[in-house]
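Fold this complex.
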Amino acid sequence: MHANIVEILLVEDNTSDAELTIRALKKSNLANNLVWVKDGAEALDFLFAQGPYSSRETGTGPKVVMLDLKLPKLDGLEVLRRMRAEERTRVLPVVVLTSSREEKDIVESYRLGVNSYIVKPVDFDKFVKTVSDLGMYWLLVNVPPA
Amino acid sequence: MSSWFSSLRVRLMLLVVLAALPALAAIVYNGIQERGLGESRAEEQALTSARLTSSEFQTLVNSGHQFLATLAQLPEVSSSDAQASSVLFASFLSQNPQYANIGAVAPDGNVFASAVPMGNPFDFSTVGWFQTAVATREFTIGDYMVGPIIAPRYTIHLAHPFVDARGQVKDVLFVALDLGWLDQRISVSGLPEGSTLVLVDSKGVVLVHYPDPAGYVGQSIINEPLGKAMASAREGGSAKVAGLDGATRLFGFVPLTPAGKGPYVAIGVPESVAFADVNSQLRRNLLALAITMALGALLAFVATGALVMRPVQRLVAATRRLANGDLEARSGMTQREGELGQLAGAFDDMAEALKRERQEAEHSTYLLRESESRYRGLYDSIRDGILMTDLDGRILECNQTFLEMVGYNRKAITRLTNQEITPVKWRRTDGGMVRHQVMVKGYSDEYEKEYRTKDGKIIPTAAKVWLVKDDTGKPKALWGIMRDITERKRTQSEIETSRRFLEIANRHGRIGPLLNDFVAEIKVLTGCSAIAIRLLDRSGDIPYAVSIGFSRAFCESESALSVHSDRCWCISVIAGNTDSSMPWYTGFGSFFINGTTRFLSTASPQLKAETRNVCNAYGFESLALVPIRSGDRILGLIQVADEHDGMVPLDMVKQLEKISATMGVCVQRAWAEESLEETQAYLNNLLDYANAPIIVWNASFTITRFNHAFERLTGMRAEHVIGKRLDVLFPEGTRELSMAYVGRTQTGERFETVEIPIMRTDGSTRTVLWNSATLFASDGTTLVATIAQGQDITERKAAEEDVKRLNAELTRNVSYLEAANKELEAFSYSVSHDLRAPLRAMSGFSQVMLDDYSDKVDDEGKRYLGIIASNARKMGQLINDLLAFSRLSRASLNIAKIDMADLARQVFAEQAAAVPDRVLDFRMDELPPAYGDASMIRQVLVNLFANAVKFTRPKAEAVIQIGFRSEGGENVYYVKDNGVGFDMQYQNKLFGVFQRLHREVDFEGTGVGLAIVQRIVLRHGGRVWAEAVVGDGATFYFTLPGNQLR
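Structure:
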């Protein structure tokens, strides 16, 4: 794999959750090309190669965005809305990975064009399994548009 | 102007003379014209004569020319034979006396032949005519010449050059024209006396002069006026110049030859000759004129006498007669044309007009006398008294009426003053009127005053006074017109009486006092001693309603009378049974008699039987009975009686009859009012004692009725309120509004249910519901009163207010709740996110410890990590349940019909499947359908069944039953088990969130399940309760609506 290819963009402000997510992905050997950003604004900077990421080449992924909803600055739904409004990221797979089971979050996410809505289990085993399944599916099983 | 000139005749004659003046002027003018004409005629004559003479002279010259021409042809001459020629010439000369000589001249000037023998040869080479003739080779006329051959005869020569074939002048033949012969031959015949004829040659030398040729021939006249005139008119003409003898003549000149180089003829006619005819004409004309004028003047003198003087004198005479008063004087002239005719006509007209005027004046005087006597009659017979006084009131004259008014004769009155016949109290009035009105504006307004008659009677009059002024405008006297107003006064007093009676009649009182007043008035009016009013009652009796002056005994005897049974005058009157042909009955149906004793003494026995004669028996001599009528109905009668005779004359009765009509109306009305009062009293009671508060107010909002119920409502007393304005009822704050509202009833609007607050005397306010009705007068538009009924709804109103208040509170609380819910929602959201994350970290990292560091942690450590993980899990479960619970209160209900039996069966099957190792006895009663949110009701059953399964765990055979009963109209469902049950003393904690009655180690759980059940059931409008016995099962009840109505 090319070092510059980013496969997963993880947007998560909670470092514990981020660490556990990355650990779970590592176990499945999926975390090699993962970039972890800690708020919505940084996520957009990365995706649109702007601000601190202005030198990034935009043709280099990611293949999937794992997006928490409750984020500082821009929340997840807003990030999702901006991505879907932008041509470059309109079809980029986004998986919401959140603690919220709130119906309105789920409905709103799907309305904005999310590809998957995953509630993080409290139970660690379940959490690890869920995340690794997620990684496997999007990186290895799913076929993105050319 | 002298007197002769003023005579018409002289003037007319002068006029005639003056009229002739234009003729004189014309004659003179004509004379002047004629003179001019005469002059030019004389000039013309002179010119004509001159031409005539000239032509004669011309003829003479021409014949000379021909003679010479002929001579030249003769052989003696053409051969220039001097001898023969001279002989020939001499023979011709003797035949032609006009010629002085005939000769021939050689071209060198030597005369070679001559009729007159020449002593010496003559050389003519220097003579003008010879030179000219040689030079021009033409016939030439010479100038004046004396001789030479024939001297001293003076001649002019005619020369004819004889030209030979070669054109050379061979010789010049000549004749000398003898001017002396010419002089004698020159004729001035046909010319006036004193005329002159002058012939001059081209050099101005006189050749011929007539008369007296000797004095002038041969003289040059170039410097004479005539010569100059001729020189300036070479072609000929005329001029008035002095002749050679110095006398002025009118000359005509004509040249003898056309070129004007030859001699001239001038003929002068004397001026006097020219004017002689004219002047004699003038003289003749003037003479004729003078004669005409003299004749005219004479004619004027005569005609004036006949045509002017005579008519004028007749007019003068007629005028004198007229002046002397003879109005019959006329001009006597019938001719009306011309000024004199007109004058005569005008005079006659004037005389006629004067005559007519005189007649009219006489007629006017006659009429005036006539009219005066008529006015005197009017003056005396007019209804008004007329009085004239001087300024001090002394009576100057008065008319007959005034005399009759005051009862004095004409002689006596003129010795009196106005003051003396005026009662003292009116003198001041008179004085005031004269001072303040008559003297100020010339007359007074009409005013009332009285006069005292000779026999002391007082006469009321309406007086009006005028001021009379003399020619200088100074006040002189006073005219007064006085009208006797005794009758008017009487009428006034009658009117006054009627007025008083009407006033009484209009008083609207009880009938008794009214009749009392009437009686008193009648007593004043009639002056009679006894007056009574008797009214017919229903039974036909006529009791005395009121009486004065009748004795008790009299009244008692009379009162008993009845129309049905008795006969008397009064019965007849009241029954309307009166015969107006009888003298004691009036047409109105009254009875009157003056002198009952006298009457009875003369009455027939039959008539006496008609009456009871009670009045006479009680000493009443005068008696009048006047029926009181109301329309056709007789209500009673007025009885007037007096002890004296003659107290009720007919006119008094008539007056009483008028009054009776008033009384009739009054009595009728009083009766009606009394009956009305009874009705009113009944209605009043009805109104006053009605249970509902009733109030009446009039068009000006004055309270007119206020019933007892209203008194109770307001605490006010009717007597304090009636007569006050309606607004006393209303509390201050709403008074204006209420009055405005009430004001709408004035237009006829009715209140159906209007709330208007009322103020009680204790200061409290009652809310009253009103309904009203408006009463209009019979015209249908005039508002009379408004009647309103109130209903005290204060309590009801208060209750309504409470409801409103509670509703408002509820609404407020709901909004609080909504706010709280919002907060809770936000809270739940945070919880779901933020609370779970640390738990995940705890369970996650404790698992990481076990995975990565199991070799470094002993078993006890591993157990602790397991405890951390399981607690984190538990807490996750708690949070999930809590979120589910909180979501319940927010989720909206989808109410639908639910098949409860079917639902219960499904849910139980699911629960049972979760514990396949358990033996469960599920029993289900017949369950009616319920209405609710299916998913929520399912949750209820899930939780209840789950609990039942859980708490029957210790039982070998679990019995779980779901049942139904209808209780007090509620659909009650229950789930019963035979589990461990619980202690009823903690049942209050049963449905609290996180409340548990069992230990975790015995029965796991979060303590949220029953709270959820309760929440759902409550949201469906039902209730939940439980019954249990420790160790012997529990039953959970819940109610749900059986139909869709909420």
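The first helix of chain A runs from residue 15 to 27.
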